[in-house]
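2024-03-11 09:14:02 DEBUG pipeline.ingest accepted 1 chain
2024-03-11 09:14:02 DEBUG pipeline.ingest length=346
2024-03-11 09:14:03 DEBUG pipeline.predict start
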Amino acid sequence: MHVGPTAGEGILGRAYALPHGRASVLFVVVAGVGVSLLVSAPTTSRWRGVGKLVWRAALLLPFGLALQELDHRVAVILQDYAVLFLVAVVLVRIPDRWLLRMAAAAVPVGSVAYLLGQMRSPQVYTRQPVVFSDTPVEALHGLVFSGPYPLITWVAPFTFGIWLGRRDLRSRAVRSRLVLIGGVMAVLAWVVSAVSLAVLGEPSGSIGWTHLAADTAHSQMPLWIIGSTATAAAVLGASLLAADALPRLTRPLVVTGQVALTVYAGHLLALHVIPDDATGSSLGPALGLLVLFTVASAVFALGWMRWFRQGPLEAVMNVPWWVADHWWRREPDPTRGPPRGAGSRV
């Protein structure tokens, strides 16, 4: 993502642009899955899980804003993750059946709320990223309502991801259903949009209710959210199946995923220094740069994870818990005797 055309011509151009508007939803679905795995780990108590979510939010908000200041022409998503992780403190306590219903209800509610905002305040709902210079009110409004990844619509795929993370993702049957159902739902959303627009007509320049039938990338409309979330489920299922079937071939991708935050920040730094013409509308240079980014990221991840358990930025996310565990698990110094007041207990 973030390299090359998003509306290419020909078969190759359209295939290259296919992830546009879907990759970011995949990121958020996987983030929801990760939250479920985080809070359900055997070594994670309820309050430890809450603390980890809050700590991540506290770090990602300023870090995302700092990365947004770079000249990379990308709407950074990390500050929106911070808001989602705070919301997750509540979501992780909700039972499965209600969690899935909430995800389903959030799709139309969020889309209609966003569309109403566009109709009433088009000068505000422009998908402009939140930056350091925004006032607290402007920043909160951008993160929740009008920014590139507003909470009112993106909470749906995130909540679905939390629900999905509670499923038995080790099961081949579950993975196969993700591929099948996700693929069918993605195609169905596209078909419904195409048929609806054929009947109603393509949306005009002015914002109106017809936009609800569109599945344009980042439109925040229902069919785009449903189709992109379904695509994310299919990609997740297919990736898990591929990782089991081809462990050696997929190993570089698995390891790169373990340092995803570091790679994300690194690619923004790279885009900051790369000339615009290398990331513009020409498919040839974009393909070369894409291969270079992918190979460099995988090589870095393989080398780093050979010596360390976590990526550099990933480790920062766990500093308080590493310090706490290290402190409480220290072996006593036998030369200093028992702690004051300590006695023998049965």
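2024-03-11 09:14:41 DEBUG pipeline.report Residues 3 and 290 are 7 Å apart (CA to CA).
2024-03-11 09:14:41 DEBUG pipeline.predict end
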